[in-house]
Amino acid sequence: MERNTLQIRHLFLRAGFGLSPGEWQRWKLASLEQAVEHLFSEAANAKQLQLTTENGLTEADKKERRKADRKLLMRQNADWVAHMASGTSNALLEKMSLFWHGHFACIQRQPKLAAQQLRTIRQHALGSFRDLVHAISKDPAMIRFLNNQQNKKAKPNENFARELMELFTIGRGNYTEQDIKEAARAFTGWSSTLLGKYKFRRRQHDFGPKVFMGHKGRFNGDEIIDIILEQPATARFIVRKIYRYFVNEQIDEARVEQLAETFYADDYHIGRLMRRIFTSSWFYAPVNIGRKIKSPIELMVGIMRTLQVEFDSSLTLIFIEKALGQILFRPPNVAGWPGGKSWIDNSSLMLRLNLVGYLFQATDVNFRTKAEFEAPKRNKAMKKIKAEVNLQPLLNQFSNYKYSELVAAMSTYLLPPSSSIDPDWLRQFTANGHAEDQVKSVCLRLMSLPEYQLC
Question: What is the largest CA-CA distance in the chain?
Answer without folding.
Answer: 80
